[in-house]
Amino acid sequence: MNRREFIDKSTKTxxxxxxxxxxxxxxxxxxxxxxxxKNWVWITPDIEASDDEWKRRFEKLKRVNISSLxxxxxxxxxxxxxxxxxxxxxxxxxxxxxxARDFDLEIHPWMWVMPCGLDFVxxxxxEWYMVNRLRESALTKPAYVDYYKFLCPAKEExxxxxxxxxxxxxxxxxxxxxxxxxRYPDVIIAMGFWEKYNIVQDKEYPQYDYCYCxxxxxxxxxxxxxxxxxxxxxxxxxxxxxxxxxxxxxxxNNKLIPSIREKNKISSAAVFPNWKNVRQQWQEWQLxxxxxxxxxxxxLANTEWIKQYTKAGIKSIKHNTSLYSGLMVNDITVLKExxxxxxxxxxxxxxxxxxxxxxxxxYEILSTILNK
Length: 372
Ligand SMILES: [Zn+2]
Hints:
Elements: H1 3-27, E1 40-43, H2 51-63, E2 68-74, H3 92-102, E3 106-107, E4 110-112, H4 119-124, H5 156-170, E5 176-180, H6 194-197, H7 214-224, H8 238-261, E6 266-271, E7 289-292, H9 304-316, E8 322-328, H10 335-344, E9 349-353, H11 360-370
Helix pairs in contact: 2-3, 5-8, 9-10, 10-11
The structure holds zinc ion.
Residues 130, 152, 154, 211, 213, 215-216 line the site of zinc ion (ZN).
C-alpha cells in the first residue's frame, strides 16, 4: 500500500467510525454517547385526543428535533397504563408506544414516586405516609396542597410498592422510566410561591418538616443514639439532614434504578435545583439522565440563572449522568433565550414542560434553535 492509499483508507475508517458512533448515539443508552444533543418533552395525560391527533403532535416534535417523549402515566391516582397493582384510568401508554415508534421517537413513561392519593393505599396503609414534626400525617394534613400526601421512603413496604410500579413500566417496550417527585415535601418552598400560599418561610417550620414517623425515628435512633423529635434545631443537625437525603438516595440507587437497568432501559428523573429544601441529593443518584427543573420564575430569577445552574448542576454530578435543562415553556418571549442559556451552560439538551403549552409560535422558535 502506498502512502496515498494508506491515507485514503485511514480517512475512510475514521469516517466510518464517526458515522457508526453517531448512528449508535441515537439508539444507545444515554450514558454511552455523551456529546450528542437530545431533547425531551413532558406530556401530561390526554385521553381524549385521537391517534391522528397524537400523530400530528409527534410529527411536529420530530420536526423540531425533540426526540424523547415523557408521557405521564402515574400521578398518585389511577394509572394511565394497564397496571396490575394500581387501579387503571385508561391504557394510554399502550396507545402511545406504537405511535411513538412510527415516528422513531423514544418513549419514557413518567411516574410520580412519593405522593399517593390512591383509595386503597389510604385505607389499607395509613401508616405508610410521612409524619411532620408536629406529628401530623401527610395523609390527613398534607402541606400546601391536597395532593401532598407523601409516602415515607424509609419504609420497606413503601419501597416495594414503588418498585413494583417501576418494574411494571420497565417491562413495556419503552426506552426508559422517568421518575418524578422523588423527594420530601418542600420544607421551604420556592420563593415564587410565598405570595400564592400567603406564607413567609424564613426558616424551617415544623409543619413542613418531615419525616418523624415511627420508622424514621427508630432507624435514626439506632444509627445516632437520639430520637429526632428531641433534636433542638433539626435544621442545623447535619446527621438528621443527611439521614433523610439517604432514604431517598437508597430508594433510587438500590431499588428503582436496578429494576430499570434489569430490563436494559434508561433511568431518568426530574429534580429540584434547590434540592436541599426537598431532601433530594440527586447528585448522588446513579441515573442515566437528570432533568433539573430550571423554572427560573419560581425562584424569582432571570434566564442567566438557567445557564449558571446548568453549569453548576453538571459539575455537581457524581456519576455518569447526562444533564438536560428542564424549561417551562409558557412564556414565549423568553423561550429562545432560555434554550440558548441551557446550551451555553453545556446542557446535553433540554426537556420542555409541557407539550400542551406548545403553540405554533413555540414550534417556529424551537425549529430555528434546536435544528442547528
Ligand atoms: Zn418516615
